[in-house]
């Protein structure tokens, strides 16, 4: 893969993920195969969130009055909001925003719902489309103007401590999720100038794409009491006093799908983790005239036994060359292929072929379900190890700004450095070497800031970002 951008664009088309020819910039059509992948990726997340959150669905439109209420928040989004000004030919009394995110849609309702401490904690989420008029270069799934898998969770708590604990829980949820997708990540606390508009602080997950640029794939925000004050989200505590709630919110987008495609893919196309591949196994009968029907019969019964075990299986019995089938299913990233021909039948076996490392081996048909299960597990862990090793090798420590500039120019990736944590120093670093400070990875003292030479307070990361 020499040019990631080109590869990414081509694979989205070839593997029939999306059609990017829709005539509105930053908006795309999900094609059937892409939609299946989107569904599997979302299902995993929803299953995790459902354990501890209630799913809701809020309207797409937000009245200008509500959006404008929280000053810092609206300032952060003012360049990005799409407005509806007319209903038919009639100009509306009050403009309506297409949600860029749903704080200002949800929180006026939270104020009505939350009455007593017994109503807390409140934990809800929704998966919706959101609209952001992005002015930076748009890219399918990575920077879109219609985000189609925006999964946003919003919580209200009675104490600051509980909200802080919720931030930790949300981080654990996203770790579990990204692990199932075999996606590697770094977690940082975003610098103050890059936190979510209205948040006390923002924790972010970033991954490194094959071109060495980092991509923010998820964020967890501690909102403190800022929105609770604005929207009057109060509750009566056991002593009968009225108190303001503490809030958090966290969200993921189509970028997760972009990362699954980009990080695991290779020159043969997609390589999907078994957990999310629309088809986990494809069975290809190797048919010669002799014994053709017998082979097909075996393939059909294997398909139904595997389906009974809960695997997603496809039998490709089209009358075309086996080689063409292999090419197509490899390109679509199906983790495991099973080939059965007359000779395999004689030996009561089948040939298994892994998409992740190209390994081929023979397995006895009597215990093929166990063999498949173990192989899929091994594929997941191999994909995870490979992706983590690649990401870690792309995070390099540097001692000074010039070294950081060289590393970024020549080797891309993420740079780790000792930092004083000051805003002025941080912005200078960003400007001088045209990077973004991702944030603080861990607090620590003892060192010296690699730029301004004052006392370092933390280890931080910087990168060229999407
Ligand atoms: C919130 N409110 O909104 P956030 N294209 C694709 N993905 C995007 C884009 C885009 N244009 N913009 C952001 N994302 C909070 C939390 C409710 C939920 C992705 O937070 O503005 C990024 O991965 O940080 C980001 O981490 C996530 O959406 C949440 O957006």
TrEMBL record:
Domain comment as written in the entry: Consists of three domains: the N-terminal catalytic domain, the anticodon-binding domain and the C-terminal extension.
Keywords of this entry: Aminoacyl-tRNA synthetase, ATP-binding, Cytoplasm, Ligase, Nucleotide-binding, Protein biosynthesis
Residue intervals of the Aminoacyl-transfer RNA synthetases class-II family profile domain: 32-273
Subcellular location: Cytoplasm
CC per GO annotation: aminoacyl-tRNA synthetase multienzyme complex; cytoplasm
Subunit record text: Homodimer.
Role: Catalyzes the attachment of proline to tRNA(Pro) in a two-step reaction: proline is first activated by ATP to form Pro-AMP and then transferred to the acceptor end of tRNA(Pro).
Molecular function per GO: ATP binding; proline-tRNA ligase activity
Pfam families noted in UniProt: HGTP_anticodon (PF03129), ProRS-C_1 (PF09180), tRNA-synt_2b (PF00587)
UniProt-listed Enzyme Commission number(s): 6.1.1.15
InterPro entries from the UniProt entry: aa-tRNA-synt_IIb (IPR002314), aa-tRNA-synth_II (IPR006195), aa-tRNA-synth_II/BPL/LPL (IPR045864), Anticodon-bd (IPR004154), Anticodon-bd_dom_sf (IPR036621), Pro-tRNA-ligase_IIa (IPR002316), Pro-tRNA-ligase_IIa_arc-type (IPR004499), Pro-tRNA_ligase_II_C (IPR016061)
GO biological process: prolyl-tRNA aminoacylation
Catalytic activity: tRNA(Pro) + L-proline + ATP = L-prolyl-tRNA(Pro) + AMP + diphosphate
SUPFAM superfamilies documented for this protein: C-terminal domain of ProRS, Class II aaRS ABD-related, Class II aaRS and biotin synthetases
SMART domains per record: ProRS-C_1
Family assignment from sequence similarity: Belongs to the class-II aminoacyl-tRNA synthetase family. ProS type 3 subfamily.
Protein's UniProt name: Proline--tRNA ligase
Source organism per UniProt: Methanobacterium alkalithermotolerans
């Amino acid at each position: 893969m020499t040019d990631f951008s080109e590869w990414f664009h081509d694979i989205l088309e070839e593997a029939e993920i999306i059609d990017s020819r829709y005539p509105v910039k930053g908006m795309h059509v999900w094609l059937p195969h892409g939609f299946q992948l989107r569904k599997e990726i979302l299902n995993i997340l929803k299953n995790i969130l459902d354990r501890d959150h209630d799913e809701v669905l809020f309207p797409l439109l937000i009245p200008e009055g509500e959006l404008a209420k929280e000053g810092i928040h609206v300032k952060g989004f003012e360049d990005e909001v799409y407005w509806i000004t007319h209903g038919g030919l009639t100009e509306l009394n009050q403009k309506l925003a297409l949600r860029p995110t749903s704080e200002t849609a949800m929180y006026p309702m939270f104020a009505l719902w939350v009455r007593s401490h017994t109503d807390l904690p409140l934990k809800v989420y929704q998966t919706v489309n959101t609209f952001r008029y992005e002015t930076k270069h748009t890219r399918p799934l990575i920077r879109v103007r219609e985000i189609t898998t925006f999964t946003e969770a919003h919580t209200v708590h009675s104490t600051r401590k509980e909200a802080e604990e919720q931030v930790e829980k949300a981080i654990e949820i996203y770790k579990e999720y990204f692990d199932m997708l075999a996606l590697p990540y770094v977690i940082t606390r975003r610098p103050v100038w890059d936190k979510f508009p209205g948040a006390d602080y923002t924790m972010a997950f970033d991954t490194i794409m094959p071109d060495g640029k980092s991509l923010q794939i998820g964020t967890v925000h501690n909102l403190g009491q800022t929105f609770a004050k604005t929207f009057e989200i109060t509750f009566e505590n056991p002593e009968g006093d009225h108190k303001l709630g503490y809030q958090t919110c966290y969200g993921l987008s189509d970028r997760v799908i972009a990362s699954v495609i980009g990080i695991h893919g290779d020159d043969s196309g997609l390589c999907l983790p078994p957990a999310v591949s629309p088809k986990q196994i494809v069975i290809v009968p190797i048919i010669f005239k002799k014994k053709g029907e017998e082979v097909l019969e075996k393939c059909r019964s294997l398909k139904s036994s595997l389906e009974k075990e809960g695997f997603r299986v496809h039998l490709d019995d089209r009358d075309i060359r086996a080689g063409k089938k292999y090419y197509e299913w490899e390109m679509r990233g199906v983790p495991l292929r099973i080939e059965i021909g007359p000779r395999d039948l004689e030996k009561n076996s089948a040939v298994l072929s892994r998409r992740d490392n190209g390994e081929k081996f023979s397995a006895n048909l009597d215990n093929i379900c166990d063999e498949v299960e173990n192989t899929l597990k091994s594929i997941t862990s191999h994909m995870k190890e490979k992706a983590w090793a690649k990401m870690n090798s792309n995070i390099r420590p540097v001692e000074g700004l010039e070294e950081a500039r060289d590393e970024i120019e020549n080797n891309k990736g993420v740079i780790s450095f000792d930092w004083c944590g000051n805003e002025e120093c941080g912005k200078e670093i960003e400007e001088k070497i045209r990077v973004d400070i991702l944030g603080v990875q861990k607090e620590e003292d003892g060192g010296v800031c690699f730029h301004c030479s004052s006392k370092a307070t933390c280890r931080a990361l910087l990168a060229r970002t999407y």
